[in-house]
Design goal:
414 residues, alpha+beta, 13 helices, IS4 family transposase, RNaseH-like_sf
């Protein structure tokens, strides 16, 4: 720690430079050192013991001290825009298993950390990513409908939810919002902070939401997002036709496609395995499949399609917008295993399309590092503000690790 302490001090000075009080800047640096020290548990008391301080100092800094975690995130995003220089913005969410029911946002939901439904919180995050590095730059705690008193069935239930919210000091303006809406909120925030406009990558939990994809398009952002095999599509060369009219009733005005849409699975099956090409999307020297630096190669098909959904805006002639359908069809598999929709340029090389679609793997690296090494999911407080401050500080600690890995002769943290 003595060798890396100057790096921590310099980074903390940049991130906490907006704090009005010197003692707050000192406590922020102390908290970062606690997250970065060896030790499995990164909750307040174990960190305090390793640091040789009263853990209540750390508790007070995170839960009641008057500093702005949003400003820290803004500074972190500015740093990531320059240091990482992202190729994409990756969106995802991660679960925080909980034993009790008092933590803000906790409910029975699917939790990736458990591999099943369970009692947990869910945090949605946006990451600036490249093939070589990444940084978690923004967070939102997902609030289920059961934590929104405006969605309660009756007055008694609403009063109970209101009491839960008050105990966690959840701001009144914070309400249930779908995860994809939280992601769009954060992307707007990051763009306002000066994050460069980059393609967005996400898994099918976000890609299957037509409104999420359209929200990115409305913001002038391209994307390469995973979708389900059942996604409805028209081939790109299919054109709408004028509506037919029987002569009675009001004449229809909307053009329609002559054939019903087909699924992504059916469209790729019709194209056939032979339509695909083998692509290496990541080079590495290690052969282990579990190693993120391993060479990754598979067969991919790329087809021009028009997603079919009544909520997608149409052109003046009634045609739906065109985009890429990308499918991965590994050797030995009877059908494709993964599908993506992408609004990247029509003339993009297949290799570049695959590389970007696959770039979401960096977010899994971030979650692993943040949880296993930096205590992202170790916060035991029960306040809305405390959770957001803790995950912000864990993200700053991860950024320090990233900087150390790229600093010559500095000890790396794996």
């Amino acid at each position: 720690m003595a060798l890396v302490r100057p790096v921590i001090e310099d980074f903390a000075a940049d991130m906490f430079g907006g704090f009005a009080r010197r003692d707050q800047r000192g406590k922020g640096e102390l908290y970062l050192r606690g997250l970065l020290l060896d030790g499995k548990r990164k909750s307040m008391q174990p960190m305090g013991e390793r640091l040789g301080v009263d853990h209540q100092q750390l508790q007070q800094f995170v839960t009641t001290s008057t500093w702005d975690h949003v400003e820290v995130r803004r500074r972190l995003a500015v740093w990531a825009a320059g240091f990482v220089d992202p190729d994409a913005l990756a969106v995802d969410d991660t679960g925080f298993p909980k034993d009790g029911t008092s933590s803000p946002g906790v409910a029975r939901m699917y939790c990736g950390a458990l591999g099943k439904r369970g009692n947990c919180q869910v945090g949605v995050s946006v990451h600036a990513v490249t093939d070589w590095t990444s940084a978690a730059v923004d967070w939102r705690l997902f609030l289920p409908e059961s934590w929104d008193d405006r969605k309660a069935d009756d007055e008694r239930a609403a009063a109970e939810v209101a009491r839960k919210r008050a105990r966690c000091a959840i701001p009144d303006e914070v309400r249930h919002r779908e995860k994809w809406r939280l992601a769009l909120d954060m992307i707007d925030e990051l763009l306002d902070w000066g994050m460069p406009r980059r393609p967005v990558v996400a898994d099918s939990a976000y890609g299957d939401a037509t409104a999420f994809r359209q929200g990115l398009t409305d913001r002038g952002l391209t994307y390469a997002v995973a979708v389900s095999a059942s996604t409805s599509l028209h081939p790109a060369d299919t054109a709408p036709v004028p509506p037919t009219w029987s002569g009675t009733g009001r004449p229809p005005t909307r053009t329609t496609y002559p054939d019903r849409p087909v699924t992504a699975k059916a469209l790729t099956a019709e194209a056939g395995r032979s339509a695909g090409r083998f692509v290496v999307w990541r080079h590495g020297s290690h052969k282990s499949a579990g190693n993120p630096t391993a060479t990754m190669r598979s067969r991919f098909l790329a087809l021009r399609v028009r997603p079919a959904n009544r909520n997608i805006p149409r052109a003046a002639d009634g045609s739906l917008p065109e985009c890429w359908l990308l499918a991965e069809w590994p050797t030995g598999e009877p059908e494709p295993t993964d599908y993506w929709l992408s609004t990247l340029p029509a003339d993009i090389r297949l290799r570049d399309l695959v590389k970007l679609a696959k770039m979401r793997w960096r977010i899994e690296h971030d979650y692993r590092e943040l949880k296993d090494g930096l205590g992202l999911d170790h916060f035991e407080g029960r306040s809305w503000l405390g959770w957001h401050r803790h995950v912000t500080l864990a993200s700053v600690a991860q950024a320090i690790c990233t900087k150390l890995r790229r600093t010559p002769k500095a000890p790396a943290r794996d």
